[in-house]
Design brief:
single chain, about 350 residues, mainly alpha
Length: about 350
């Protein structure tokens, strides 16, 4: 496979693999103990399969304007505005900063949350300002480093627990699966899929690919990134199930760093803190860019500069970050309950319609 496929695959994976994707599988494995395989299936249905459908639809539509066109201008704009608000400084980006701080704080408790959010905001500004390099930087540099460090740490944890028995219930647990589906929605990866593919397709266009080549590359990259997500989620569920007793009363953002500290010691826990930071910042860069682009398109006729919108967006992110992880989950759920079914139907519609268009073309 070509270099572009791997670059886009890794970039899309990293854009997804942020705060919720690292935290929610571990919360489920803690909550369902021996029934974690049922929860894993449910989580993959909503967190991977539904997201994969969104990726395919996004690739075939090639941009958000085409994707939301069936809703009409007014309804399409309203739906996008709500989604973008959650994707940007009022949902996903602050959640990334919260989890990133949780990973750092578990190893270096002296680091203040407020200071961390401000410094992360400054980094976000510099990285998001050069959006033309977004896919290349994340796909070619940040993600390989992330996966390499993650593989080393996970291998050590699995090795340490290789002789430790794991209790798995032979019975299928419907409640665990339903909770898995519910938690999978909270990753917010379906809306992300629609917008992340737009970034990826823009990158492929800049690389000189034809429309048909862009679609082929996008579809292959979508499949690879989805497989990577399933593998990582499976490992997280497996690891989390080994530490049920040790992690009682540990807050959500500290579960994975605590597991690493127990299994690998403080030095590798420090290395893992950088893994969490890279993963969260990768997602945050993509999400804040999507939000800023959307707002800029609305206000550019008033000669408002892009960087001003980006700065204001990052300030809003820092303020919302103080809600903490559980507070943001409660804030996001009502909107997701309403919008997810609509987005699933819209994704299926785009796939069917664009498939017919491609055949005619």
């Amino acid at each position: 496979m070509g270099k572009n496929i791997w670059t886009v695959s890794f970039a899309v994976f990293a854009m997804f693999f942020g705060a919720g994707n690292m935290t929610l599988p571990l919360i489920l494995s803690q909550g369902w103990n021996s029934s974690w395989p049922s929860a894993f299936i449910g989580f993959c249905l909503s967190g991977v399969l539904v997201t994969f459908i969104g990726l395919i639809a996004g690739v075939m539509a090639r941009n958000t304007k085409e994707f939301f066109a069936p809703l009409g201008l007014t309804v399409g704009f309203i739906v996008q505005a709500v989604l973008i608000c959650i994707e940007g400084p009022f949902g996903i980006v602050p959640r990334c900063l919260i989890v990133a701080h949780g990973g750092i704080h578990a190893v270096f408790p002296q680091i203040d949350a407020g200071v961390f959010y401000i410094l992360s905001g400054v980094l976000l500004f510099f990285l998001a300002s050069n959006k033309g390099m977004l896919v290349k930087v994340i796909g070619q540099y940040m993600t390989p480093l992330l996966l390499s460090l993650l593989a080393i740490i996970i291998s050590i944890i699995v090795y340490k627990n290789i002789n430790s028995p794991i209790v798995v219930s032979g019975k299928y647990n419907v409640d665990a699966m339903v909770d898995g589906i519910y938690k999978g929605y909270l990753t917010y990866d379906l809306p992300g899929a629609i917008y992340f593919t737009t970034i990826a397709m823009t990158y492929l266009k800049s690389e000189g690919q034809s429309k048909s080549a862009m679609i082929r590359t996008g579809l292959k990259a979508s499949a690879i990134s989805s497989i990577l997500l399933i593998i990582v989620y499976g490992v997280f569920f497996y690891i989390g199930s080994h530490y049920t007793e040790e992690l009682k009363n540990v807050e959500a953002t500290h579960i994975l760093p605590t597991i690493v500290s127990i299994s690998c010691g403080q030095i590798l826990a420090g290395v893992f803190a950088s893994v969490v930071f890279i993963a969260c910042i990768s997602t945050a860069i993509a999400a804040i860019t999507i939000w800023t682009d959307f707002v800029y398109e609305i206000f550019k006729k008033f000669n408002v500069k892009y960087d001003i919108i980006l700065v204001l967006s990052i300030i809003a992110t820092i303020v919302v970050s103080n809600l903490q992880f559980e507070g943001l989950i409660k804030l996001l759920m009502p909107a997701l309950t309403i919008l997810y079914p609509l987005l699933i139907l819209l994704s299926l519609y785009n796939i069917l319609k664009k498939r017919q268009d491609i055949k005619k073309g």
